[in-house]
Amino acid sequence: MKNPTFLFFAFLIFISFHTRAQDINKYPTLAETWQLDSTSQSQKVEFSILPYKPVYILFANYTTNVNDTPTSINENNVVEEPIGYDNIELAFQISFKTKILHNIFGKKIGGDVWGAYSQSSRWQIYNNTLSRPFRETNYQPEAFLIFGTPYRIGNFKGVYMGVGLNHQSNGRSNPLSRSWNRVIFQMGWEVNKVQIVLKPWIRLPEAENNDDNPDIDDYMGRAQLDLSYNAGNHNFELATRHSLRGGSNSHASARLDYSYRFIKNLKVHAQVFTGYGESLIDYNHNQTTVGVGLSLY
Known about the structure:
3 helices, twelve-stranded antiparallel barrel, mainly beta
């Protein structure tokens, strides 16, 4: 199982050398993140690899509730016998984006087309009994259109809005196959040092007999709210999801990431997740996970 580890760290090195340099003494604003500021690089397309979601490795990620028999309301996607997973595993994520087109509706209206890719894995590296398998890997390509929305009401600053297509799947066969496709809307604001991003979405329908997880939006939600705050070398990110339904269909999750930059772009990283949908295979599984490791950017 050496190849996945080698490829992961090789990718981290690749990202480090090919990502546009930034001021490591401060975290970027939302306008800088989406190249909506007045700097020269925002006026042209360079197909540079840029940071998107956090790139991290959690050397120990502990769960309070192991999902040993993944299930779905689709009877073809139910594991009958316990698999034998450990409650501690290694987890990592890689993620990047690039601008594809700039100002497609002209300078007055704007409109930038972006593409992105994220991949997160849960690796049972300490599970010698099962020969250290990868428990779950989620693949997430995206394409979206971003518009600047510069306005200010007191300390409340509007930054951008956008819409895009998102595919997420785990690339496995039944009974472990999970996937969904969404149209995701997003709006971004800033209040002093707090960045706020709201992402409601609509799941695209699939053929009834070909849907691995028909009730996924009742667990992994129909909207996400992201809050980010930084103070010096400290950064806090909170992501919350909710099904936007009541009664037995009311489900939610929250993920808190904390990082401390100690060597340029290298950071100590800690993550706590609680609720449903820590990964696609766990979309209807309730648990709390705690992980520690390193991250970049």
